[in-house]
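User: Design a sequence. Structure:
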């Protein structure tokens, strides 16, 4: 019901709190505060929204850090074996092989190669090895994140008549065939304060096509001037 109040300049409504009596109770629990509808204090609280946003941001940041810094595998695999030097006879043979090892860093941060051991077997017999240890942080190779880094190592193999020199002569000098070797690669890596090892074994073929046979029935090859090796065995 609309009524005219003293001093009012327009239509007003009967006071619902005082029930039209013009008096408001003085009881503590029934006190009334008169606040305009546009007062910011009447707006709903957004505390819950802020908490939800903060939790979402925290989870997103935590998930990102876990993805970036979670330790992943750093692997090393022999991918290419090549004869770069050879002196072959039926009684004594020396070969120098260049082994290309691909080091794959699956992490999102740089890893370091602390050492690598390359062992070569021929007909289930160990015939050569290269043990390399990097003592200084200046010389040890750094493996870029999410990339494959090729490293070359040379291994010297010595054969006599008992260990298969005559077989090497037959395959490389007589029929120009290929030699098969079992390659064992053991690597040691580090990142931050963590250290770990990785081992892999594979069968590799070394081609004898470039070996030159001499008049004295021996064979020779020297490609060391054409090959770049990162370390010598």
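Assistant: Done.
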């Amino acid at each position: 019901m609309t009524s005219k109040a003293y001093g009012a300049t327009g239509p007003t409504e009967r006071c619902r709190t005082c029930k039209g009596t013009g008096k408001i109770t003085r009881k503590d629990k029934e006190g009334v505060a008169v606040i305009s509808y546009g007062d910011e204090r009447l707006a709903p609280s957004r505390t819950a929204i802020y908490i939800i946003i903060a939790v979402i941001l925290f989870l997103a940041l935590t998930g990102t850090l876990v993805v970036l810094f979670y330790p992943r595998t750093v692997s090393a695999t022999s991918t290419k074996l090549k004869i770069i030097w050879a002196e072959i006879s039926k009684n004594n043979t020396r070969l120098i092989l260049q082994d290309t090892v691909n080091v794959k860093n699956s992490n999102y941060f740089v890893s370091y190669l602390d050492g690598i051991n390359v062992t070569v077997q021929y007909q289930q017999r160990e015939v050569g090895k290269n043990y390399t240890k990097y003592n200084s942080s200046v010389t040890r190779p750094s493996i870029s994140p999410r990339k494959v880094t090729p490293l070359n190592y040379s291994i010297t193999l010595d054969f006599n008549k008992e260990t298969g020199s005559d077989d090497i002569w037959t395959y490389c000098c007589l029929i120009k065939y290929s030699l098969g070797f079992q390659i064992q690669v053991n690597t040691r890596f580090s990142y931050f304060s963590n250290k770990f090892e990785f081992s892999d074994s594979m069968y590799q073929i070394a081609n004898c096509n470039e070996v030159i046979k001499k008049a004295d029935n021996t064979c020779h090859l020297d490609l060391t001037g054409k090959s770049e090796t990162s370390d010598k065995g």
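The CA atoms of residues 76 and 136 lie 21 Å apart. Residues 1-7, 227-233 have pLDDT under 50 and may be disordered.
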